[in-house]
Amino acid sequence: PIMYHLMEECEKYIHSVDELALDGNTLIEMGYKGKEIGIIKQELIELIFNDKLKNDKDALIKYCKTKLAI
Q1: Are 32 and 68 contacting, i.e. CB atoms less than 8 angstroms apart?
Q2: 24: Cβ–Cβ under 8 A, 6 or more apart, which residues?
Q3: In angstroms, how far is the first alpha carbon of the chain from the final one?
């Protein structure tokens, strides 16, 4: 049924920063500070929503590490 498929699709996405597999403490341990934390979290949400990144802690950490190296 279509409704079941739509519900399944919606479950793939996160709806707030609280649903990220990566928390602020981990970002702080990685070296992120202040406003950088909110900025990277928003970026992660957008990437997950656009199917460019999975909401998986290891994948998110790897991405955040590459951003720090820039």
Answers
A1: yes
A2: 37, 41
A3: 46
How far CA 62 is from CA of 8, 9, 10, 18, 55, in Å, comes to: 27, 25, 25, 19, 12
For residue 8, what pLDDT is reported?
Answer: 56
Average pLDDT over the chain reads 85
Give, to the nearest 10 degrees, the angle between helix 35-49 and helix 57-69.
120
Instruction: Write the secondary structure of the chain as one string of H (helix), E (strand) and C (coil).
Output: CHHHHHHHHHHCCCCCHHHCCCCHHHHHHHCCCCHHHHHHHHHHHHHHHCCCCCCCHHHHHHHHHHHHHC
Q: Is the dihedral of CA 19, 59, 68, 47 positive or negative?
A: negative
Q: What is the CA radius of gyration of the chain?
A: 13
